[in-house]
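In response to a reviewer's request, we include the raw inputs and outputs for one of the modeled complexes. The two entities were modeled together in a single run.
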Amino acid sequence: MLFFIETVLSGLMAGVMYSLVALGFVLIFKASGIFNFAQGVFCLFAALTFVGIMEKTGVPWPVSFVLTVGVMIALAWAIERFLLSHLVNQEPIILFMATIGLAYFLEGLGDLMWGSDVKPLDIGLPSGASDWMLDTFDIYVEKLEVVAAVVAAALVTGLAVFFQKTRIGRALRAVADDHQAALSVGISLRTIWVIVWSVAGIVALVAGIMWGAKSGVQFSLSLIALKALPVLILGGFTSIPGAIVGGLIIGVGEKVAEIYLGPFVGGAIENWFAYMLALAFLLVRPQGLFGERIIERV
Amino acid sequence: MRLKDLAIGIAALAIAAPIAATAASAYELTIPSLVYRTGPYAPSGIPFANGYADYFTLLNERDGGINGAKINVVECETAYNTQQGVECYENTKNQGESGALVYQPLSTGISYQLIPKAEVDQIPIFTMGYGRTSAADGTTFPWIFNPPGTYWDLASGMVNYAAAVEGGLENLSGKTLALVYHNSAYGKEPIRTLESLAEKHGFKLELLPVDHPGQEQKATWLQIRRLRPDWVFMWGWGVMNQVAVKEAASIRFPMDRFIGNWWSGSEQDVLPAGGDANGYLSATFHAPGPDFPLHQEILEKVYGAGKGAGEKERVGEVLYNRGLIAAVWTVEAIRKAMEIKGSNEIKASDVRDGFDALKVDEARLAELGLPNFTYPVELSCAVHSNPGTILIQQWDAGAKKWTVIASGIQPDREVIDPLIAEDAAAYAKEANITPRECNN
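The model returned the following structure tokens for the whole complex.
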């Protein structure tokens, strides 16, 4: 029983890490209807820039964090200026293809700027098992993942306040609801897009730091997007709480499956099991758990 | 007048160019280098590619190539992707006057795809310490070479090291050994040997696959926590190694009972874990570090001339040294091929003969500037992998360096040789191959 609790707890913690990546997808999809294939590379690029600035200049991490936020905002502006503004009113698949191109471009740019080596990320985040949990209950909980859970909670709270209480947040929601109506009341679509891509960039930076602390910052970070996809399918592409709950369900589901089902089928099932779980949800609720209901009028 | 000068100039160039080309048309040796400098496995691929390239550059700079024939290294990016690797092979195999002389795919997946192609194209494939283990049987695999050891030698050597620590092979009985492996052709390679060894010595083997790329391994390490194995062996690559070392430290698994194979023991694998990686073990077949005359020569003549493939501070890293020794053995096989043919105008089939007769003993290693760097290698028509001896190195997180703590560990030939013969025979039957006759 104790081991099962440990498995579920680890699944929940891993799920939070997936949610951090999924949040960036949701933000952009919610505001602009674009499925940003480059979100995983955003995490990589942001983390590379963050570590790269620290390595090259020797500045403390908070300074590097602020500078990287600046870089991500500049990147959002450049994406809007040189990519999205030329693709307004295009089919969603065109925009999706553009983000695939963007992913490859950013990966190459990151490589060119900071190199391909593994960059250890040491900013004082705790690592290893929680001694208290291990010694008192013999339950293994990773300290870094507890921090990630706290950061994710703070991030979601911050985003909720931003969306609900601020003028820009309301404008973002207006754009998400209806582009044309938002434009007609004087909301600048271009400004909104820059803001939302900037916020997604900052979320990517946080996710990149958390994942980078686990394995060092390296190019495989871009593949964590694959972990976010089932989370999105399950939670819904337009819901921030959906990204969190979806992450938790996928995290627990895949860990329980790997440990209790894996040995009977040769193991290494957690990746495809997450997609199977998402597929099962898709059959019942195509819009995901918290997604907006799809109504097609004919 | 100026037009006239120009016309005369062009005419002079037109006459002179072929003469100049003839003067510079010494026979060139084409050596394709399948590298991965991009993608998730780049941190492991880059240092190997740099070590491989730097040795050829040194020979071109210092000696004008090999016996006067310049070496043309043609890099092709595979991103550790099997399909891209095969495309690289097809695109480079006919390049240059010599054609591709030998391939070093640095991927077991690519190696498996190239085995039947090598037979048809008659190009040797040097899968140094990786690839298909039974390729060690030169009668069935005349074009594939995998010295200085196979994955089965490696697995057996690691078991023998664990036995030595436990106080003897008899003490392995009742123990549990977990294999954490990359869920790919590469990662699955040692399973057969470990199963045979488990049966022979009475230890329990637990198999724990990790899917590509291995960024998330929580479930694997929870299972290790539950199973509480006495030893964990790892067949990892790329990010899988870094995450595994960190996860092992997190669950407080003793690092001196955790052994990575020789592709899971580079600086890149342990540095991200910081102090947590202290004491981690890995197998290897050569010394770490830059303290050899050859390294000093590379630093002076290649990096000093601004022609180094990477950063000079990284010369001597584990995977750099691995690429370097791969190039050294390749060049020695080419020298042997030239010696056998009596000419430096060799083709791939001649290089195969060179590999068949490859002998790099301690005296030769010393001549090459690598005294006591690795074990002597001696191949033959029938034996394409040798000697299979391993070393164990341990990571010192404080000093940030590897130290060799055990050497001369031999594999269990009694178990491995019949397995190789059996697997080679099965391949010969499946591919409808008649093994060649060998006198040695």
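As requested, we also summarize the result in words. The mean pLDDT of chain B is 93. The domain at 29-150+289-385+418-430 of chain B is CATH 3.40.50.2300 (Rossmann fold).
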